[in-house]
User: Fold this.
Amino acid sequence: MLLQTVRYTALLASVYVLVSCSSEEPAQKPVRSSQKTEAHAETRATERSFLIVAFGDSLYAGYGVQPRESFPARLQTALEKNKIAATVTNAGVSGDTTASGLQRLKFTLEGLPRKPDLMIVGLGANDMLRGLSPVQTRANLIAICDELKQRDIPILLTGMVAAPNMGKDYAQAFNAIYADLARRYDSALYPFFLDGVVTKPDLLLPDQMHPNSKGIDIITRKVLPTVINQLNMQKADIQPH
Assistant:
């Protein structure tokens, strides 16, 4: 565990400048999931499937990989393999902080065909890398969760862990945010989105921060049970086939 922590610290420190610079690139527009290849699957996606929105930063957007290799695309494929009809919308934007995510939240929701059955929220990594105040990060995530709760949209938070070189006080304040919000909003929580990937160079892009295609596959497999559990809780509203 100590070795992984040291590696994590080194990796984050080495890519701090790169990630900060990449956040200045033009924001990527949310990418819709690809259409079903079979007519009957298209019908189920429109009329009877779950609508899931992956709302986050570059880790969701699919930075450095093909659109079909992004986390939302792989999640949709994994759900289909588990006989769960679902459309997963990629609402990830590279460089987004919690503040910029909050700014585009209503626009994103209003652009959907209907109310989502699940909103997967993954923001905060860029806040941490820039050393932004955990107090403000928490406030922005609270505002996001408040908006989703007001619209009666179930939430799954995927958390982030502060690099140890941010300091003990910062790490304590930042790391507590996701579990605290999960309790406050009675939402599902996957504690660390990059778990099992961040310390393994063969699962990361050359920047040693973003997961490559293999890394995304691992993340998807690990997050999948939590997503399925949340969808199973909603079968009274939508019955997937």
In short: The CA atoms of residues 52 and 88 lie 5 Å apart.
